[in-house]
Amino acid sequence: MNNMSNESILVCVYYGPNGERLLKRGCKIANMMKAPLYILTVDPKPFDELDAEKLFYIEQWKEYAHSHATAQFIMKDNESRPVSKVIAEVARDNNITQIILGQTAHSRWEQITKGSIINSLVREIPFVDLHIVSVARYIRDEEGIYEKGIRAYLIKDGDHYKLSFNHEKQTEYEGIFFKEVDTDFDNGIFRFMKDAATLHVLVSDGIITELKNVDIYAAMGLDNSVE
Question: Is RNA-binding found in the keyword set (predicted)?
């Protein structure tokens, strides 16, 4: 891509379904300006200490970057510095001209709504444009509908699939299971990769009757509108 506009776009993502919306917004801007796209996530923990849910999101972001010729994924793990310092450093290193941040209720980016990160970025990189995108909040998570995701597997059993928490020879898919709270049964949503696409399927008492993708925002009660 010939970057005639001399623009470079940086999207800052954190764990959760909102990352995909931020990436779409960043990709749209990058395509319009014919500019390179950088995807950044920051975590205070070392990479080898991250749980299964976080690793799953990281793999998704990597896949997204690999599927776009001008996109590059950057991860800053084991970071003790303020998020704004890390973002500013990446912006300078990659000649970033526009940064996209998400406003979300349950992430470290929540600080953005208080102005601290914005003020710091304006001081450190005053000539970079900041885009604050309003993203879906975890409405149903706030109400305690789903537990934290855990690593799980799907095993073919006749005309349906069984959910398992142990990797077996018969395992066909690996992903993350989000269990509904206040139930003794394995009911919830299973998220996994199939043919380079992310799917969310419903699980009822540990059984998946069909690998039919459901609207994750509708299933979790999230507002998927983009302002």
Answer: no
Give the pLDDT confidence of 11-54 residue by residue, as tens digits.
998 887 677 778 888 888 898 888 999 999 999 999 999 888 78
Asked if residues 163 and 149 have their Cβ atoms less than 8 Å apart, the reply is no
CA separation (Å) from 150 to 35, 41, 124, 146, 193?
37, 21, 38, 11, 15
For 154, the token pair is 């799907």
> Residue 50, SS3?
coil
Q: Vertex 13, ends 10 and 19: CA angle to 5°?
A: 115
Residue range 169-221, pLDDT digits in tens:
889 999 888 887 767 789 888 888 887 677 889 999 999 998 888 876 555 55
- Rounded CA gap, 195 and 189, in Å? 19
d(CA 77, CA 30): 25
Half-sphere exposure of 200 (CA within 13 A, CB side): 13
CB 163 within 8 A of CB 156: no
Give the integer Cα–Cα distance in Å for 90 and 40.
8
Asked whether 26 and 58 are in contact (CB, 8 A), the reply is no
Phi and psi, residue 58, nearest 5°: -60, -40
Is residue 72 within 8 Å of 41, Cβ to Cβ? no
Can you tell me the distance from the alpha carbon of 186 to that of 184, in angstroms, rounded to the nearest whole number?
7
- Which superfamily is assigned to 9-135 in CATH? HUPs (3.40.50.620)
Residue 106's pLDDT is what? Answer: 39
